[in-house]
Amino acid sequence: MNYHLQTSRGSWSLWGEICFGALTTLTLALILRSLWGCINAIARRKTIRVLHAAEIPSRFLFNWGDTLKSVDDQNSFAREIRELSLDAALGHAVAELWTDILQHAQRHQHLRSAISTFQYCVIALLGLASFTFTAALM
User: What pLDDT digit, counting tens, does each position of 37-75 carry?
Assistant: First the structure.
């Protein structure tokens, strides 16, 4: 097919080249947008903690980041655990659960967007393949 496209280059019109370039650009843009959505679902620059800072209290017992901010070593960790009341532990658990819910919703939103974009990407890729195959037969 590549040989045919190279040798029959003169039969391609300017419009054919423009359509091929536009379909190729559209397909690549959709691929990149879909990948970007998937990456955002997993690793965002703005974390849930940053986006909802006022809503999320300390989750000392259930979040490693908050735990490490609150203690220096194993001894201080053990001391904090012994001094922790049941209500405080429940408060940390509820805060962690709320954080997980917010994070899951954010990831779900990004993945849905990425999947929708990927569906258009498949259509564009099929269009590009059909266009190229048709041009190769001319």
Answer: 999 888 877 777 777 777 777 788 888 888 888 899 999
Predicted structure pTM score: 0.65
Sign of CA dihedral 26, 14, 137, 3: negative
Token code pair at residue 94? 């509820």
114 burial level (CB within 10 Å; 0-12, 13-18, 19+): buried
| Phi, psi dihedrals of residue 45, rounded to the nearest 5° | -70, -40
C-beta separation of 72 from 114 below 8 A:
no
Residues of the chain with pLDDT under 50: 1, 3-4
CA 130 from centre of chain: 30
Task: Report the alpha-carbon distance of residue 49 to residue 76 in Å, rounded.
Answer: 25
